């Protein structure tokens, strides 16, 4: 028995040394638990029963079916590796789960949503990965119907929101590497359907406009108007200085062409070449032309292949285009960890790239300059 206690103490000391210092307290009283409830839920009538060491079961008198608990939790550690114990309650999660489960049992429909539950406490999270506005409208109407069902019920303030994520899973064209945030918005009880659909529509329009693709949800005119406002090439983020020979080139001529982190899509390049008066054959999805350097180029969203880098286990998709019949790979920038950076079907405007000239020779140039005859620079 004594040896077991010594081993336990040694283990605890090791945890404290390796994981930071925990300053306690280690034991809380029922009075402290009651004070925690009064501070967190002032004015509420709450019943409480002790269940064990540092643990109490509780319920609101006006909602006895939703039983929650108070238990010990550890806080701190950032930025100083020192921790302390506090009391914590899970009433919001329990009430949210209770109403959600009750709604579904009564025949309510939320089948447009993915309901994920945490392994530890079973807390539910609603999420939607959408690729069309029809999915958004169906999901938002279902969630709003659920919120209407909860009107007048106690502790409705604990209701959580559903999260909308833009994910074009049915297409190879990547988006999460370009977008600042995959999560588009959340829908809570007070949010209007118009606001939610507008935010989701914006991300969908941005995707189609950036890649210069047709979309069943929006007309070409709607996409063009959105793109002109989103990428005006004069006030947008990441402005570039463009030169034609020794003369400045009016960047506003490229307004509406999607540019993100000094990258444009193959479809964006197609539009750029058209505006420069170059002869282009094909569509934004697949086209060919003679570049300003006299070389024959061919771009296609279908030009991709699966590669398996030597230092990575899982294969990934990389895109390329053709110059005089030779493949120019878009994945040729080494990172600090010796892996490769994937750019997708995009052309880098301000970075050099290696390419094959013929069977025996390779070159390194700014490919956007060879193609367009323009110079793109971050500074004058």
If you had to describe this structure to a student in words, what would you say it looks like?
With 380 residues, the chain is an alpha+beta fold. 28% of the residues lie in helices and 30% in strands. The protein is built from eight helices and 24 strands. It has helices at 2-19, 30-40, 91-105, 133-149, 193-211, 220-230, 266-275, 367-372, and strands at 21-22, 46-52, 55-60, 63-76, 82-89, 114-117, 124-130, 162-166, 183-187, 241-244, 247-248, 263-265, 280-283, 286-290, 296-300, 304-307, 316-323, 326-329, 333-334, 340-341, 346-348, 353-356, 362-365, 375-377. Strands 13, 14, 15, 16, 17 and 18 form a six-stranded antiparallel sheet that branches. It has a five-stranded mixed sheet with strand order 1-5-4-3-2. Strand 7, helix 4 and strand 8 form a beta-alpha-beta unit. Helix 4 packs antiparallel against helix 5 (193-211) and helix 5 crosses helix 6 (220-230). The longest helix has 19 residues, at 193-211. It is elongated, with a radius of gyration of 29 Å. The model is unreliable at 1-19 and 334-340 (pLDDT under 50).
Summarize the entry for a quick read.
This protein is an alpha+beta fold and 380 residues long. The chain contains eight helices and 24 strands.
Q: What's the rounded overall pLDDT mean? A: 87
Distance between the termini: 77 Å
Output the radius of gyration: 29 Å
Largest sheet: 6 strands, antiparallel
Class from secondary-structure proportions: alpha+beta
Q: Treating each run of at least 4 consecutive H or I residues as one helix, how many helices?
A: 8
Low-confidence stretches: 1-19, 334-340
User: In percent, how much strand structure appears in the residues?
Assistant: 25-35%
